[in-house]
Specification:
342 residues; alpha/beta; TIM Barrel; 3 domains; 8-stranded parallel sheet; 16 helices; 8 strands; 51% helix
Amino acid sequence: MRIGYYNQVIGLDRETNQQSFCDRTIDYNLRNNISVFELCLQELDFSVDKLTKILKLTKENNLRLIISQSLTEDSHHQLKTITDMLDSINLDLTSKIVMSAEYFLEHNQTIPASIRHRLAVKSNKDCIEEVLDLSKCYNMPVTYSLTKDDKTNEWIDRCLETWTKTDGPPLIYSHFPCQEGIVDAIVEFVSSLQFNEVDVLLQNNLCCKMGINSLSEKTTTVHLEQEWSLYKYSILEKSQTIYQHIRQLLKDKKNNNVLAFYQLIEEGLLLKENKGQAINTLQHVWGYFKKVASIDQKHHFLNLVDQYHRDEVNLKTVKNYLKVLASQYQESYLLKSLYFDL
């Protein structure tokens, strides 16, 4: 079983300024042992050149790419174009174009036979019976999108039967609400599937890494320290107590503290904004620039902090200014962190 991601990619846009988005995406996936991922062409404003490049990089690095595309009544030509590109680069048939159940149910009779080998249907329990029945007629695999209301894996098991060896491992989508218990929910769900040859796509790259690290026996304190470098300022601005707890946890090199680590991260991120802690963290991050920033930049920062303290601007406004400085002065530690995203 492999864990990947779909939908939102958090923090990737600043990872390496010298690389294109395509290079950054593939590099990110390789560094984090992510071998399956989905890209939404609509949201990423892909050109043919960009798509061609990422398809080639996907093939070169033996990854599995799932493509989603918002489809309308006249979208068959879009599907044909993408299919031709996938086929021309000789990506194996495990790389799929996923269409919505609604589009499939309305347009299944007019979908050209010449592109069906690249298509899969994304469904949920609202229309799964009808989708499964029709998929048999067209030999199209069905993915299942699990929600918090699903109590069993019954529909997952039914969808698994629609996938052939040529199609590759069945795809399962799962979205976990950002609420208390998300870490435990991800681990419990993925563990329930771990004996199946499936690819599980979680809602973003951060949940994906959380799932991979929590379930891998190879995750070490070194991995957690790398994760901590991404989250530390986001936690510090919420809770000094949790910040210190995590630091103490990482000093324990003998025990497996992966789950405890992510549970503390979750607990910290779910806390409400703490103005005192937020200002303390803003000042801490400002320390990266105090020797290089101009007098005007210093005055502007201090003025923004004062305005935030008096509720005249929000926290995001001050952080956005620090993000501008981080980019200007190329503070890579900050740019690679999630402080400006969470």
